[in-house]
Amino acid sequence: MSTTASAKNGTWRNWGGTVASLPAREVTPASVEELAAAVRRAGEDGLTVKAVGTGHSFTSIAATDGVLIRPQLLTGIRAIDRDALTVTVEAGTPLKRLNMALAREGLSLTNMGDIMEQTVSGATSTGTHGTGRESASIAAQIRGLELVTADGSVLTCSEKENPEVFAAARIGLGALGVITAITFAVEPVFLLTAREEPMSFDEVTGRFDELWAENEHFEFYWFPHTGSTNTKRNNRSAGPEKPVSPVSGWFEDEFLSNGVFQVAQWVGRAAPGTVPSIAQISSRALSARTYTDIPYKVFTSPRRVRFVEMEYAVPREALVETLRELKAMVDRSDLRISFPVEVRTAPADDIALSTASGRDSAYIAVHMFKGTPYQAYFTAAERILTAHEGRPHWGKVHTRDAEYFAGVYPRFGEFTALRDRLDPDRRFQNDYLRRVLGQ
Questions:
Q1: Which of 37, 144, 146, 324 could form a disulfide with 181 if both were Cys (CB 3.0 to 4.6 A apart)?
Q2: Distance between CA atoms of 75 and 90, rounded to whole angstroms?
Q3: pLDDT one-digit tens code per residue, 164-217
């Protein structure tokens, strides 16, 4: 099964099957010069431009009826600086390839999300993140960027060079230019010990501050229609390595988390009345386990069951109240929700449109199986999340617009002013950006 977006009859579709668009033409540049030429030519033809990675966004952030740029030839590591502890990679490099290449070099990112199919530019441009007490999103680990701007020129930025562009472009939504290379901070590879165990909803919400404070990386999944959660704590370890055995790894990660879960989703979609019973069984299926391995093998896991997702960041201190409201809403509704709700955290960062910009944040992600009606659930959840000044993930389903974002992002005006300067003719515009950033 392909993990990337697909094209059929020239139509581009995203991974989740929620978006389709028909670009005027597709370009697959083999160099920064070819990409810059494609942007200039689009300008001469009066066409807009969008780069698209693996299509893992559920929003139409990458959709275009203009020029679609596919960066799959712009991949690989350009440079490793062991003194500065940085690595510079081409924009189309999948996170999976980056993680494996770094591990071979004895290096690692400090933190990462739980999926690694996306390209580095797609993941960072939308604010993809994992969970961490002190370590933030993938974009917060960026030390330098190279991007092609609307006039076809190549601009580099860092804290020292074009710092005002750097402050915004690390999570740029594709609105400021096409990223061609990213320089990440890295560190010598280390070991993480993961401890996964079931915990009741009441215990995890009652002890949330303590669990967050005691662990470098804490997250949990709550199963709607139950009082059960599955918790995961990742902390640095002196070793030795004790990876999940191939058999138990296959059983837990492939058979239960993907195979049986997929079948359960099919049953739930066909017979919604069975969902609460399935949820009870699902919440008890995964047993406690502890293992120690290098970071990407602990942080990431395969996700083969297709779904639609909405995720909001709320102030961390509002998490427990928000989650309890969400549970109360589900409990009193007729909704049948077969997918767990994921909860993670991130420290405040200094990126203009980061969901954690200027505030310690907690993330609440709601999912529905692909092909199941999700609107009623997402609408009810969004009402609760926005009441707590939630900020939606840029690549996941939401209904917010520029007026809302101007209220929840103190530096929103700084970003739109920079966009006016770098892309006055809106070469990188599409319907999604028109909605979330305004005209």
A1: 146
A2: 5
A3: 999 999 999 999 999 999 999 999 999 999 999 999 999 999 999 999 999 999
Phi, psi of 258 (to 5 degrees): -120, -50
| Three-class HEC string of the chain | CCCCCEEECCEEECCCCCCEECCCEEECCCCHHHHHHHHHHHHHCCCCEEECCCCCCCCCCCCCCCEEECCCCCCCEEEEECCCCEEEEECCCEHHHHHHHHHHCCEECCCCCCCCCCEHHHHHHCCCCCCCCCCCCCHHHEEEEEEECCCCCEEEEECCCCHHHHHHHCCCCCCCCEEEEEEEECEECCEEEEEEEEEEHHHHHHCHHHHHHHCCEEEEEECCCCCEEEEEEEEEECCCCECCCHHHHHHHHHHHHHHHHHHHHHHHHHCHHHHHHHHHHHHHHCCCEEEEECHHHHHCCCCCCCEEEEEEEEEHHHHHHHHHHHHHHHHHCCCCCCCCEEEEEECCECCCCCCCECCCEEEEEEEEECCCCCHHHHHHHHHHHHHCCCEECCCCCCCCCHHHHHHHCCCHHHHHHHHHHHCCCCCCCCHHHHHHHCC
Two tokens at 373? Answer: 């009606």
For residues 43 and 243, give the distance between their C-alpha atoms in angstroms, rounded to a whole number.
52
